[in-house]
Amino acid sequence: VQLQASGGGVVQVGGSLGLSCAASGRTFSNYVMGWFRQAPGKEREFVAGISRGGGSTDYSNSAKGRFTIYRDNAKNTVYLQMHSLRPEDTAAYYCAADRFLRGTRGSSSEFEYWGQGTLVTVSS
Q1: What is the pLDDT of residue 26?
Q2: Which of 75, 76, 96, 101 could disulfide-link to 28, CB 3.0 to 4.6 Å?
Q3: Is 76:24 a contact under the CB 8 Å cutoff?
Q4: Under 8 Å between Cβ of 119 and 64
Q5: What average pLDDT does the segment 12-24 reach?
Q6: What percent of the chain is modeled with pLDDT above 70?
Q7: pLDDT at 54
Q8: DSSP 12-48
Q9: Three-class SS of residue 49?
Protein backbone atom coordinates (compact mmCIF):
# COMPACT_ATOMS: atom_id res chain seq x y z
CA VAL A 1 0.00 0.00 0.00
CA GLN A 2 1.24 3.48 -0.84
CA LEU A 3 0.66 6.29 1.62
CA GLN A 4 0.68 10.02 0.96
CA ALA A 5 0.54 12.34 3.96
CA SER A 6 -0.41 15.99 3.73
CA GLY A 7 -1.61 18.90 5.82
CA GLY A 8 1.46 19.96 7.72
CA GLY A 9 2.36 23.58 8.22
CA VAL A 10 3.11 26.31 10.71
CA VAL A 11 0.62 26.99 13.47
CA GLN A 12 0.72 29.09 16.59
CA VAL A 13 0.70 27.68 20.09
CA GLY A 14 -2.81 26.69 21.03
CA GLY A 15 -3.90 26.39 17.43
CA SER A 16 -5.28 23.46 15.47
CA LEU A 17 -4.17 21.55 12.42
CA GLY A 18 -5.48 18.57 10.50
CA LEU A 19 -3.38 15.97 8.74
CA SER A 20 -4.52 13.55 6.05
CA CYS A 21 -3.03 10.37 4.71
CA ALA A 22 -4.35 8.94 1.46
CA ALA A 23 -3.74 5.27 0.72
CA SER A 24 -3.67 3.46 -2.58
CA GLY A 25 -2.75 0.11 -4.00
CA ARG A 26 -4.39 -2.30 -1.60
CA THR A 27 -7.65 -2.73 0.31
CA PHE A 28 -7.39 0.08 2.81
CA SER A 29 -9.83 -1.43 5.29
CA ASN A 30 -7.50 -4.41 5.79
CA TYR A 31 -4.91 -2.22 7.48
CA VAL A 32 -4.46 -0.87 10.95
CA MET A 33 -3.36 2.74 10.54
CA GLY A 34 -1.14 4.82 12.75
CA TRP A 35 0.39 8.24 13.04
CA PHE A 36 3.93 8.68 14.31
CA ARG A 37 6.11 11.72 14.72
CA GLN A 38 9.81 12.42 14.86
CA ALA A 39 11.34 15.59 16.21
CA PRO A 40 14.90 16.58 15.33
CA GLY A 41 17.39 14.50 17.29
CA LYS A 42 14.70 12.25 18.72
CA GLU A 43 13.38 8.80 17.94
CA ARG A 44 10.17 8.26 16.03
CA GLU A 45 7.29 7.91 18.45
CA PHE A 46 3.75 6.58 18.28
CA VAL A 47 1.05 9.26 18.33
CA ALA A 48 -2.23 7.51 17.51
CA GLY A 49 -3.60 4.32 16.01
CA ILE A 50 -6.94 3.18 14.64
CA SER A 51 -8.41 -0.22 13.94
CA ARG A 52 -9.33 -1.49 10.51
CA GLY A 53 -12.98 -0.59 10.84
CA GLY A 54 -12.33 2.61 12.76
CA GLY A 55 -14.12 1.52 15.90
CA SER A 56 -11.07 1.42 18.15
CA THR A 57 -8.42 4.05 18.68
CA ASP A 58 -5.38 4.51 20.86
CA TYR A 59 -3.27 7.54 21.71
CA SER A 60 0.01 8.40 23.29
CA ASN A 61 -0.26 10.17 26.62
CA SER A 62 0.82 13.37 24.92
CA ALA A 63 -1.86 13.14 22.27
CA LYS A 64 -4.71 11.98 24.46
CA GLY A 65 -7.41 14.60 24.81
CA ARG A 66 -5.91 16.87 22.16
CA PHE A 67 -5.61 14.74 19.01
CA THR A 68 -8.22 12.65 17.22
CA ILE A 69 -7.51 9.93 14.71
CA TYR A 70 -10.26 8.78 12.37
CA ARG A 71 -10.57 7.14 9.01
CA ASP A 72 -12.87 7.04 6.04
CA ASN A 73 -12.53 3.66 4.38
CA ALA A 74 -14.65 4.76 1.45
CA LYS A 75 -12.08 7.47 0.73
CA ASN A 76 -9.03 5.35 1.66
CA THR A 77 -7.92 8.09 3.99
CA VAL A 78 -6.89 8.39 7.62
CA TYR A 79 -6.86 11.70 9.42
CA LEU A 80 -5.26 13.23 12.48
CA GLN A 81 -6.98 16.28 13.91
CA MET A 82 -4.78 18.15 16.36
CA HIS A 83 -5.89 20.82 18.82
CA SER A 84 -4.22 22.85 21.57
CA LEU A 85 -0.89 22.47 19.86
CA ARG A 86 2.29 22.99 21.85
CA PRO A 87 5.87 23.76 20.78
CA GLU A 88 6.81 20.19 21.72
CA ASP A 89 4.40 18.92 19.05
CA THR A 90 6.78 20.26 16.42
CA ALA A 91 7.93 17.28 14.37
CA ALA A 92 7.67 15.46 11.09
CA TYR A 93 4.46 13.44 11.20
CA TYR A 94 4.25 10.09 9.42
CA CYS A 95 1.31 7.86 8.66
CA ALA A 96 1.83 4.13 8.73
CA ALA A 97 -0.09 0.98 7.87
CA ASP A 98 0.12 -2.64 8.82
CA ARG A 99 -1.90 -5.60 7.63
CA PHE A 100 -1.29 -7.89 10.61
CA LEU A 101 -0.90 -5.70 13.68
CA ARG A 102 -2.97 -6.82 16.65
CA GLY A 103 -4.62 -3.94 18.41
CA THR A 104 -4.23 -0.29 17.55
CA ARG A 105 -0.85 0.53 19.05
CA GLY A 106 2.56 -0.53 17.90
CA SER A 107 6.17 0.46 17.64
CA SER A 108 7.53 1.86 14.43
CA SER A 109 9.08 -1.51 13.62
CA GLU A 110 5.66 -3.17 13.71
CA PHE A 111 4.23 -1.05 10.90
CA GLU A 112 5.22 -2.19 7.44
CA TYR A 113 4.20 0.69 5.21
CA TRP A 114 5.04 4.35 5.64
CA GLY A 115 4.16 7.62 4.04
CA GLN A 116 6.55 10.47 3.65
CA GLY A 117 6.64 12.87 6.56
CA THR A 118 4.69 16.08 6.72
CA LEU A 119 6.21 18.79 8.86
CA VAL A 120 4.28 20.42 11.68
CA THR A 121 5.82 23.48 13.29
CA VAL A 122 4.21 25.02 16.34
CA SER A 123 5.50 28.53 16.86
CA SER A 124 5.31 30.67 19.93
Answers
A1: 86
A2: 76
A3: yes
A4: no
A5: 98
A6: 100
A7: 97
A8: ETT--EEEEEEEESS-GGGSEEEEEEE-TTS--EEEE
A9: strand
Q: Is the dihedral of CA 23, 26, 29, 33 positive or negative?
A: negative
Average pLDDT, the chain: 97
Residue type, 4: Q
**CA dihedral sign of residues 40, 45, 50, 51:** positive
Is 119 within 8 Å of 7 (Cβ atoms)? no
The stretch 39-60 carries a mean pLDDT of 97
CB 36 within 8 A of CB 93: yes
Q: How far is residue 70's CA from residue 67's CA, in Å, rounded to a whole number? A: 10
